[in-house]
Amino acid sequence: MTAVPGQRPAAATPPEAGDAAGDDLRGLFGQSIAVFASLAGPSHVVEVANPAFFATIGEERARTGVAIAELLPELADQGFVALLDEVYRTGEPYTGRDARVVLGAGPHAREAFFDFTYEPRHDADGAVTGIRVIGVETTQVKHAQRLMAEHRALLEQIARQAPLPEVLEGMARCIENLAPQEVLVSVLLADPDGRHLRHGAAPSLPDFYNQAIDGIATGEGVGSCGTAAHRREPVIVTDIAADPFWADFRGLAERAGLAACWSTPILARDGSLLGTFAVYHRTPRIPQDTDLALIQIFTGTAALAIERHHIEQAKAEAEARARAAHDQLAEAVRAERELRGEAERRAATAAELAARMRAAAAAQAARPRPERCQLGGAPGCTAAAEIKIADSWGDSAWGCPIHVEEAILNVRSVFIASEELGGLAGYLNR
């Protein structure tokens, strides 16, 4: 990657009479937080540098008399040595703004940003003899700007009610990208009773690890997260291999390549447990103030997202219950209308039947009583007519006890009509 393009002044810096100002510059930058180094010759040998320069590149590389390309070989592929060559060749200074540089290599590599100037040094004849490097690291400012932008995006996600897993996973990836060293972020969500923690988001942890800790209990000594949830306070485990809290999970952590875990409880405004926010490291590590500040910011953001989710979830459940109650009421009203209609139809049928029975009773009362049984069928019956029977259709007959019993058993809706008591007409008009 090449350096961020800068600005060139219209004219080169006037030649100096020798390098008498070198001592003054060393005195000026000796205790400064600004990075200063004086390079000599076309190979850019480091003649002098202030403590801030060596602190920036790493104290293990703090030496002079070495070409910058040898001291910082990683700069060659990033365009910075080529810029030094150009400034030495042209004698024109170069200024870069927010230039990104990766210092170191492998697991010790770190991203940094600088505002810097390459200032040519001249001898009495005006020839370029070397370059002064003056810079100010802007990494923290750059990271703060990125942090604010990422945080604003998360708040916008929460405001537009994005799904909670989407918000939490985005937050985890944001922190992993912002952290100066490799970290792996996990968010666990508390069950309603606060006794267990469920998987929320952990995009960079292996699946077997997430599945193993999904549903772990909250309690003293249950890893970093279970203990933090139980205590309602942060639990910093700097070395998993030696910490008693991880006795039951040490093999799992080793398999996942985890060596440190800092866990912070996520609490609601009323103090109830919402979950835990954990930062894992591949090597044992003690948190710095910047780490704790970053954790604090995003723990609060996670609390906001989870609480908002709970509110929306409760609202949706209340609306679902209201819809169910409305549907039940509508069903009850419909059933009541059907029952009322059926009752009205039954009442009408009963009234019609009663009218027909009254008519039948009146017709029966007008008929004379015969002497012989009328129910004997085609052969006839010579027994005396003792009992009168009738049906709801207005038919009636007199018969002997035997044939009356047969009729009652075999003919639908037959009943005995009692003339001694005035018949059905007398009963209905009582």
TrEMBL record:
Residues 9-20 have a biased composition (Low complexity). Residues 1-23 are annotated as: Disordered. It comes from the Bacteria. Residues 159-316 form the GAF domain. This is GAF domain-containing protein. It comes from Micromonospora maritima.
